[in-house]
Amino acid sequence: MNYNVNEKGYYGEFGGAYIPEMLYPNVEELRQQYLTITSEESFQKEFQQLLRDYVGRPTPLYFAKRFSEKYNTNVYLKREDLCHTGAHKVNNTIGQILLAKRLGKNRIIAETGAGQHGVATATVCALMGLECIVYMGEIDIQRQAPNVARMKMLGATVVPATSGSKTLKDATNEAIRDWINNPVDTHYIIGSVVGPHPYPDMVARFQSIISEETQKQLLEKEGRENPDYVVACVGGGSNAAGIYYHYLNQPEVGIIAVEAAGKGIDTGESAATSALGKMGIIHGSKTLLMQTPDGQITEPYSISAGLDYPGVGPMHANLFTSGRGEFISITDADAMKAGLELCELEGIIPAIESSHALAIFNQRKFKKDDIVVVNLSGRGDKDLNTYISYFNL
Ligand SMILES: *Cc1c(COP(=O)(O)O)cnc(C)c1O
User: Fold this and answer.
1) Which residue of 66, 105, 158, 245 is 20 to 30 Å from 253, comparing CA positions?
2) Which of 186, 202, 218 is the last residue of a domain?
3) How far is the first Cα of the chain from the last one, in angstroms, to the nearest whole number?
4) Who's near 142: CB < 8 A, 6+ residues apart?
5) DSSP line for 331-380
6) Could you tell me the pLDDT band of residue 121, with boundaries at 50, 70 and 90?
7) How many domains is the chain built from?
8) Ligand 1, atom 5: nearest CA belongs to which residue?
9) Range of the domain at 263
10) CB 89 near ligand 1, within 6 Å
11) Average pLDDT over residues 369-377
12) Band of the pLDDT at 379, cuts 50, 70, 90?
């Protein structure tokens, strides 16, 4: 079994490029070019240099001693929270903007839900001096005012999506419409391992620096490249794809994916796609998707904005159905508790997304000798108001 994308753009039965005909030239240009361009020496040199000097890589692999003692196992945290802009998303936007430049594109568009991907995109556009337009649902603009302000400070134009539920899916529709109308000068930066082929594979490759570093760092610290488990939260699945990437075809490394159960899987307010999803098409990709019996996409819910997505990337749908990945869902309440626990035990305030991954230690036992690497996808500064109101701080 191969867990990477095949030459047709599929992970098992998931993936592909289900797009309107008018989008075909844009996506096809990208498909034909992405591997050639990203494997050029000059591309790799510039990418690695920016990851080091601008993003601050390699991020530390930190042995969480007090957390490990509490759960009687060995827990390492891969510190993506220490990346510039506070999360892993910038690894991907740096890669895509370098690709866009080489494709001769000078106008960048993106969609954003909570605003994190919008900020990561606006950041690299400022870095490269390119025009940046971010589509965002009107309701999300109201809910996520600090990130809207950040994008504006970084020089981006934030365009409200006013149709439908005025949230992420509507912003995505607007971005696709823009790309169809501007096929020559515009590149669309997608923020996770979702969308039509080649996006899931391209984004996974940019994020794979996470497991590449982990292998080297673990070899140094433990004398072996492979942990017993790698763990990550899954919204669309890009930070997870990054920490899994170099372990996908190493069967001795267990892969654990953590989804948001929201208020509980059976409450109708969750984002636990593997538990609740069925095969469907979202954002141009065939994958597992939360939907009504007649195929309408269900509005997801999670306390963490980054996990509040009704699908998962096709890589993860395949990891689930093939049994290669173990999927666990974590409620809002358990995630919040785990987030506060990391603060108290290790002096690290995690993003609420990452807190979901930390919460599995209360649900699942590991052996005393196991080495478990948890991808700490982001820092909690952006979530301070949620922590404050949840715990009455
Ligand atoms: C956006 C985000 C996520 C979820 O996105 P993935 O593509 O699933 O990684 C997770 N953690 C943080 C901190 C985020 O900002």
Assistant:
1) 66
2) 202
3) 49
4) none
5) EHHHHHHHHHHHHHHHS--B-HHHHHHHGGGGTS---TT-EEEEEE-BBG
6) very high
7) 2
8) 235
9) 56-86+208-391
10) yes
11) 98
12) very high
